[in-house]
Amino acid sequence: MGGKPIFALNITCFPTDDLPLEVLHEILKGGQDIANEAGAPILGGHSIKDKEPKYGMVVTGLVKKEQLVRNDNAQVGDFLVLTKPIGTGIISTAIKRGNAKDIDVENIIQVMTDSNVKATNAMNEVGVNSCTDITGYGLIGHLKEMCESSNVNAIINIKDIPIINGASNYASNDENIPGGTKRNYECFNSVVQYQANEQKINKLQLYDAQTSGGLLISVSEEKKNALLSSLKKQKCLSYSVIGKIVDKEPSHLIQIK
């Protein structure tokens, strides 16, 4: 939303009877590395003994009201830019099933540990109309929310959507499709009209529940090139123009071409 994090608190649940504290140390160190990258000191936190390890942060940030970037202000004529490839949910499930190759494990680690601070810096530098992150509801779910709240429709070019290497191969095996991805498809598929050759992509990937996904940014035509240049300069994993915002129509909210 254009904010700058100023501090964070760790929240962790950890099975101290089953795992050594060295594991917790490595988890907290990873969190510290990312917080350092975002410029947010960790001031403390809370820990709870639990049978399953869990970790997250509570983050406090600041943003000037006039610079707040919301998900409900996409404008007709805007271009949609995605800053990370999708596919983390499918590859993560392939890992759980023992189906993933080492190189693909490395690929999603790179994607999930790449901070969105770079894309945020680029977005704030240029000034954009709207933004949402792509997380649990997948690309279609979060785009649907942006379109509905902005009272617009969207057209997506399927060939321009960045996919993590290996994800398409795993998507062909139903065993690798997360339950959340399937539920997203059941919930959101009705708002989508497919005009593209569906053989080009397993469309479940469009609904794939992401962990630490990228930003979907709605930017005016006048500022599009400046945004792409800034995202490239920031070394974001993707700076793909995947579609466009169009006038509201009574038919399908999202068209896939």
Give a structural overview.
The structure is a single chain. This protein has 257 residues and is α/β, with parallel strands linked by helices. The protein has two domains: 4-62, PurM-like, N-terminal domain (60s Ribosomal Protein L30, Chain: A, 2-Layer Sandwich), CATH 3.30.1330.10; 70-256, PurM-like C-terminal domain (Phosphoribosyl-aminoimidazole Synthetase, Chain A, domain 2, Alpha-Beta Complex), CATH 3.90.650.10. It contains eight helices and ten strands. β1 (4-14), α1 and β2 (42-49) form a beta-alpha-beta unit. α4 (117-126) runs antiparallel to α8. The model has no long low-confidence stretch (mean pLDDT 93).
Helicity level: 25-40%
The radius of gyration computed from the alpha-carbon positions, rounded to a whole number of angstroms, is 19 Å
Low-confidence stretches: none
What is the terminal separation in angstroms?
29 Å
Average pLDDT works out at 93
Superfamily (CATH H level) name of the largest domain: PurM-like C-terminal domain
CATH topology of the largest domain: Phosphoribosyl-aminoimidazole Synthetase, Chain A, domain 2
* Name of the CATH class of the largest domain: Alpha Beta
Task: Count the domains.
Answer: 2
Strand content: 15-25%
What is the count of DSSP helices, taking H or I runs of 4+ residues?
8
Secondary structure layout:
Layout: E1 4-14, H1 21-38, E2 42-49, E3 54-62, E4 79-82, H2 88-96, H3 102-112, H4 117-126, E5 130-133, H5 138-150, E6 153-156, H6 167-171, H7 179-188, E7 192-194, E8 215-219, H8 221-233, E9 240-246, E10 254-256
Parallel strand pairs: 1-2, 6-10, 7-10
Antiparallel strand pairs: 1-3, 4-8, 4-9, 5-8, 6-9
